[in-house]
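Thread: Modeling a multi-component assembly for a lab meeting

Hi all, long-time lurker, first post. My supervisor asked me to bring a structural picture of a complex we are working on to next week's group meeting, and I have zero experience with this. I have the sequence lines for every component (224 residues in total). Could someone generate the structure of the whole assembly? Inputs are pasted exactly as I received them:
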Amino acid sequence: EDKVVQSPLSLVVHEGDTVTLNCSYEVTNFRSLLWYKQEKKAPTFLFMLTSSGIEKKSGRLSSILDKKELFSILNITATQTGDSAIYLCAVISGAGSYQLTFGKGTKLSVIP
Amino acid sequence: DTAVSQTPKYLVTQMGNDKSIKCEQNLGHDTMYWYKQDSKKFLKIMFSYNNKELIINETVPNRFSPKSPDKAHLNLHINSLELGDSAVYFCASSLALRETQYFGPGTRLLVL
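Re: Modeling a multi-component assembly
Sure thing. I ran the full set together rather than chain by chain. Output:
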């Protein structure tokens, strides 16, 4: 059974801190790993990672995938209160038809 | 038996037209989704529909409207098609929010 594990489950930091969120996976026929930010309703897409070692960057957020060690990290630098959300990691796997398996998420709270 | 099916598989149409893509799942799932995969192969969630609650990703133009006649069906209607709508659209379903999602085969839309 495919498994995606995120850590920590929750995190409280002060504005300006840098945080690293972790996602490890065990899946059959890995295809891609996705990071989402979920504040209230639908998750918002952040990154899609397919190749190892290539950092994806968007503003203060960056992410990298290690396909050998089967994990990904999401970094947020100079955190702001608006970064408070649940960050979801999901893995697309499968040979013929695909499936998308989510981790349970990391709840990030940024306090002023 | 196909678990998640989409029709049509290919759709070629002209700008300004209105079109629908249909999705059906026979897995007894409560939650269905629409994703858009663009030319860079990024897979982005558009909508998720959980029982009677429609969750809208606010970045999706309101020309896109999901319609769910019942729990097993989630159709995507697109008004006034634009060139940038060309993409592969995937439907998926899961038992509940954030449970493993199972994808349909995709609908390749080309707007001329």
